[in-house]
Design a protein that fits this description.
The protein has 13 helices and twelve strands.
C-alpha cells in the first residue's frame, strides 16, 4: 500500500523541499489516491489521466520512499542466466515490457549477468545499487536465492514455482499448454510425437518448470494412444542435425515439439535440408516467444510464452513490496496455444483419405 506521506529524494545538500504525493495530485488536478493507483498499477486509470500524472511526477521530480528510512536508488535489478542459457526472444519481450512498467512507476532497470556466478548479485545487493531484484529463470534450489535472502531486499523470482519465505514469485503454468499441444496433434492423427528439450544448464537451470508441460503432455498422450518421446537437443547445427537424423530414421515421429526457441530455426532449416516438408511430411509445434515465432518462414503453431506479461507482473510485484505489500502467493500465468501453418493432418491419415477417395 502506498504511503501518502512518501516524499521525493531531495538533492544531496537538502536545499530543495521534498515533493509529496499530495503535491503531485494538486499539480495534476487529481486526487492523491489516483496518483497512488497510477504508481502501483492496482487500478485502471484512463490513458489521458495516467499521462498527466506521469508527466507531473517527472516535472516535479517525485520519488517514493515507501516509509523506508534510507533514500531509494530508483533502480530495479534484473538478474539473467548465463549467455549460453538464454532465450533472447523471450528476454527482449520481457525487458521491453518490464522497462515500460518500471518507467511508469519511476524506476530504471539494471541488468545483472550471472556469467560469474553470484558475484554480480552480491555487489548489487551489498552496495545498495538497486532497491529490489528480479531473478529470471529461477529454480527451487537456485544458488541466487540464498544471496537474496541474506540481503533482505525485496525480490521476485521468475520461472519455476518455489516456496522461499519472503520472496515473491511469478511462475509459468505450463500444464494447460502441454495438454493443448498433444491434443492438437492427436486430433490431426499423429500417433508418434517427439518432444525436443534444451539441456538443463546450471546455474540458472532455466527449464525446471518444464515438469508441468512434460507431465500433462505425457498424460494426454497416454489417454489418446499417442507415442510420446522426449530428447534433449542443444541449439547447435551439428547437434540438431544428428538428433533429427536419428529421430527420423525408419519413419520416426510425424510431429516434433521444439521446446527451445534457439533451436527452432535450426530444426526448421535442417528439415528443409533433408527434404522434409513442414507440415506435409513433419508437423512442428514451437514453444517460444511471439517474436521468434514471427521470424520464421512460416508462422509456426506455437505455445507462446507470455514474456511481456511476466515482465510487467514482475516489476509490479517488486515495487509492491517496496510499498509494504507482502510477498504473498505466486502469480501464475499460462502460455497461449496458437495454431499456425506448421501443423497439418498426419501423412498416414492423409494417405488413407486419398485411397478411400479413389
Amino acid at each position: 500500500m502506498t504511503n501518502f506521506r512518501d516524499v521525493a529524494d531531495g538533492p544531496a545538500g537538502g536545499s530543495r523541499a521534498a515533493v509529496t504525493i499530495t503535491d503531485v495530485a494538486n499539480a495534476a488536478g487529481v486526487s492523491a489516491s489516483t496518483v497512488s493507483y497510477v504508481i502501483t498499477g492496482k487500478r485502471t486509470i484512463s490513458p489521458a489521466t495516467r499521462r498527466r500524472v506521469e508527466e507531473t511526477i517527472r516535472a516535479l521530480g517525485y520519488r517514493r520512499r515507501g516509509g523506508s528510512p534510507s533514500p531509494r536508488a530508483g533502480v530495479l535489478a534484473v538478474a539473467v542466466p548465463p549467455l549460453g542459457d538464454r532465450q533472447l526472444g523471450m528476454e527482449m519481450e520481457f525487458f521491453s515490457a518490464a522497462a515500460g512498467a518500471a518507467r511508469e512507476l519511476g524506476f530504471d532497470l539494471l541488468l545483472v549477468t550471472d556469467d560469474e556466478g553470484t558475484a554480480g548479485l552480491h555487489r548489487v545487493t551489498s552496495a545498495a545499487l538497486a532497491d529490489a531484484v528480479i531473478v529470471l529463470d529461477a529454480g527451487t534450489d537456485d544458488p541466487r536465492v540464498p544471496v537474496l535472502l541474506a540481503s533482505g531486499r525485496p525480490a521476485v523470482l521468475v520461472g519455476a514455482p518455489g516456496e522461499h519465505r519472503g520472496l515473491a514469485s511469478v511462475t509459468l503454468d505450463f500444464a494447460p499448454a502441454g495438454r493443448a499441444c498433444l491434443t492438437h496433434l492427436a486430433d490431426l492423427g499423429h500417433r508418434s510425437v517427439a518432444h525436443l528439450t534444451p539441456p538443463d544448464t546450471p546455474p540458472g537451470a532455466r527449464l525446471r518448470y518444464l515438469a508441468g508441460f512434460v507431465d500433462s503432455f505425457g498424460a494426454t498422450a497416454g489417454e489418446r494412444g499417442v507415442k510420446a518421446i522426449s530428447r534433449t537437443c542443444a541449439p547447435t547445427a551439428q547437434y540438431v542435425a544428428r538428433s533429427l537424423d536419428e529421430l527420423l530414421a525408419d519413419g520416426g515421429p510425424t510431429a516434433l515439439v521444439v521446446h527451445d526457441e534457439a533451436a527452432l530455426p535450426l530444426v526448421m532449416g535442417t528439415l528443409r535440408q533433408r527434404g522434409r516438408q513442414v507440415p506435409g511430411d513433419v508437423s512442428v509445434v514451437a514453444v517460444c516467444s511471439d517474436t521468434v515465432a514471427g521470424q520464421q518462414r512460416i508462422r509456426p503453431t506455437a505455445v507462446v510464452i507470455p514474456a511481456a506479461e511476466l515482465g510487467v507482473l514482475s516489476v509490479r510485484r517488486a515495487v509492491g513490496q517496496l510499498d509494504g505489500e507482502p510477498a504473498a502467493d505466486p502469480d501464475a500465468v499460462s502460455p497461449a496455444f496458437v495454431a499456425g501453418e506448421s501443423t497439418a493432418v498426419a501423412p498416414a491419415v492423409r494417405e488413407g483419405a486419398t485411397l478411400r477417395e479413389r
